[in-house]
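Appendix B. One record, verbatim.
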Amino acid sequence: MTGMGIRVAGEQSITTHVPQGGYIQSVDTVFHETFGNELTEKWKHKTALLTTKIAQHIEKKVGHSLGEMSMDLGIDKNGDIWFFEANAKPMEFDEPNIRQTSLLRLLQYFRYLSGFVPKEVKS
């Protein structure tokens, strides 16, 4: 998992799209407000585990590795996690830290696929 971002729907809105009144919020802020300090890490771990399982399932069904994927999930008032969609090749993220890490991970993945193993650098 490269990163996690949260979009919150605007007042009286069902959409989280920023141009439609939604806004970006930090995972820690939302999880702390929703689940409390003691359960935040548990929920972050639970969400990360679920997204990994969903990605593995999708790749198994399509028959090949997609290499990169983003997912839209929701958590309802009962604490149930809902999967809305997965996007192969999302390319861009609103959060600069996720964007930077995603580019690095893509380079690492391409190197892995090529079989390139760099020679040990001697200092």
